[in-house]
């Protein structure tokens, strides 16, 4: 939950760190593809769950339903410029996450074609999300910090807390963060 020192972008920047960690874990696991039969599909499934539920439903949900509308209310356009680019990239990320989820069962059953699709989508997701987060942190959030002042900051942080209390396909935010922690213990090189 938020503290008095949090700002609407500080909270999202912290979540970005977790999303960057999952991108690295994903690529470390996919590197096991070179050894036939050695791929850790359970860990890949956990990565896909974390990406769908934490990176997308929770984190992008906060941006799309709370931060971006606040910026739009202060004059930032919806259809062009940074918000439009971020929304487009969220959609691209959703597409890659869906492609990974769709390919996983057949890849687990030994389909080489599905494994290729899974790995391609995974690498594409990692590339996309790293570039996306760099743009958000360095461009959009810098602008947001200039545009959103008190008391809107407090109001937004309180609204974020509301999102954090939701469950995502039955999982709490803490349970989703525990998935990442378990993956990082299993793949300390990530
Ligand atoms: Fe973000």
Question: What's the helix and strand layout?
Answer:
Layout lengths: L7 H23 L10 H33 L8 H27 L3 H36 L4 H13 L8 H14 L4
Helix pairs in contact: 1-2, 1-4, 1-6, 2-3, 2-5, 2-6, 3-4
Bound molecules: fe (ii) ion (FE2).
The CATH top-level class label: Mainly Alpha
CATH T-level topology: Four Helix Bundle (Hemerythrin (Met), subunit A)
The count of domains is: 1
User: What separation lies between the terminal Cα atoms?
Assistant: 27 Å
* Beta strand count: 0
Number of helices: 6
Which band does the percent of strand residues land in? Answer: under 5%
Q: Assign a percent range to the helix content.
A: over 70%
Compute the gyration radius: what is it?
17 Å
Name the ligand types: fe (ii) ion
Unreliable residue stretches: none
The residue-averaged pLDDT reads 93
Pattern of helices and strands: HHHHHH
Mind explaining what this structure looks like?
- This protein is an all-alpha fold and 190 residues long.
- It has one domain: Four Helix Bundle (Hemerythrin (Met), subunit A) (Up-down Bundle).
- Helix 2 packs antiparallel against helix 5.
- The protein starts with 7 loop residues before the first helix and ends with a helix.
- The chain binds fe (ii) ion.
- The site of fe (ii) ion has 5 residues, from helix 1 and helix 2.
